[in-house]
Design goal:
The structure holds 2 protein chains of 2 kinds.
Chain A lengths: L13 H27 L6 H27 L10 H22 L1
Helix pairs in contact in A: 1-2, 1-3, 2-3
Chain B lengths: L1 H10 L2 H5 L7 H31 L5 H35 L8 H22 L6
Helix pairs in contact in B: 1-4, 3-4, 4-5
Classes of the chains: A mainly alpha, B mainly alpha.
GO cellular component, one term (chain B): plasma membrane
Keywords (chain B): Cell membrane, Membrane, Transmembrane, Transmembrane helix
Protein name (chain B): Membrane protein
Chain lengths: 106, 132
């Protein structure tokens, strides 16, 4: 029996599991961002260093924003599918961190 | 190659993906999304591994260290891009009611990671480090 005003939720808790998958991925992105910060910081305060930190912060916030929007959508009982833009955005953050790393290491 | 370019255009055009076939059970789409996220985490782990090799193995020779780090970073970036590509293809196949696409990527990635692990063992065993 369902109470009026509450939609039937999937017994397999698929939206909840997907939400947790986004949270895990956010955590993985945060760890990678911290490693990137560790790479970028030398304690000199040069413009290059400040720029590097800004880029990492920007990438991290961008990922948080994509994840936060999706997590909010997933509170619905029957959430709509992920949009290609959100998928490309999440992947772009990972690629941006990789490109940043290549630029710093070489 | 032309198919790939068409697929890439789908990344930025949700209405074109929605125009294909019928919307599948939302649970299938969510499962596809979780698989996509698992690949993104794999990509992030590889990128993190690239940073870690450069930061935590200072005793390795410069060439070996930078080579390893760049290899991990390149595979990480490829993994992230391929995650979107495969997610779009699966989503479209589900909408059209086709079989899910097969991909050689997981095998290639496993072999690549295995090779890097073996290479690291050889480096450590043969003592190719800058300090004795």
């Amino acid at each position: 029996m369902t109470r009026p005003g509450t939609a039937v939720r999937d017994a397999g808790l698929q939206p909840e599991r997907t939400r947790l998958a986004w949270r895990r991925t956010t955590l993985a992105c945060s760890v990678t961002a911290v490693l990137a910060l560790r790479q970028a910081l030398h304690g000199t305060g040069s413009p290059v260093e400040v720029g590097g930190v800004a880029v990492i912060a920007l990438v991290w916030v961008a990922f948080l924003w994509v994840a936060h929007r999706r997590i909010r959508q997933l509170t619905a009982a029957r959430p709509a599918a992920l949009t290609p833009k959100a998928a490309a955005g999440a992947a772009a953050c990972a690629v941006a961190l990789a490109v940043f790393a290549m630029a710093v290491i070489v | 190659m032309i198919d790939f370019v068409k697929d890439v255009r789908l990344w930025f055009a949700p209405q074109r993906l929605r125009a294909e076939g019928e919307t599948p059970d939302y649970r299938f789409s969510l499962a596809n999304e979780r698989t996509f996220l698992a690949w993104i985490r794999t990509a992030l782990a590889l990128v993190g591994g690239g940073f870690a090799v450069d930061q935590f193995l200072p005793d390795l020779r410069w060439g070996v260290r930078v080579g390893m780090a760049l290899a991990l970073l390149a595979v990480g970036a490829a993994c992230a891009l391929r995650a979107v590509h495969h997610w779009v293809r699966c989503e479209r196949a589900m909408r059209r009611g086709e079989d899910l696409p097969l991909s050689p990527f997981p095998v290639l990635l496993s072999l690549g990671v295995g090779l890097v692990a073996v290479a690291m063992m050889v480096v450590v065993l043969l003592g190719w480090t800058s300090r004795p």
